[in-house]
Amino acid sequence: MDKPANQGRILAIDLGTRRMGLALSDPGRRIGSSLGMIERRGMARDLARLRELVREREVTEIVLGLPLHLSGGESEGSRRSRAFAERLERELGLPVRLRDESLTTVEAEDILIEADLSRRKRKKVIDGMAAALILRSYLNELEERPAP
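Below the sequence we write its predicted structure tokens.
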């Protein structure tokens, strides 16, 4: 049975060249939490891992970070994210929303420093934390939208 458009888990991805940070919402789209990160292993293997995660966690939508310059302009990273989003939609058959991720890594770093995590520990969790911040921003936007 299909879920209503405003229900189902959302997977957030902070796409990097070597790692992907991941975060997941609850089915009611109220809270999100980091799933950590996965090492990139090539497009085919990355897609296979994401496909499995989507199936296991019953994901109905994906939010992908879009790295823009502070001026709002596109970057090489944003072009990579757009191409990855198109491929995800085609391969996984789910809607992929692009979300400005400006300063999420900086914000995640600040949060982790405030929590007094060592540099070594921060390196292990920062990508997932950045994905969780992307997800939180998107969930806040959904909550503020008027009901259909």
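The CA atoms of residues 12 and 28 lie 15 Å apart.
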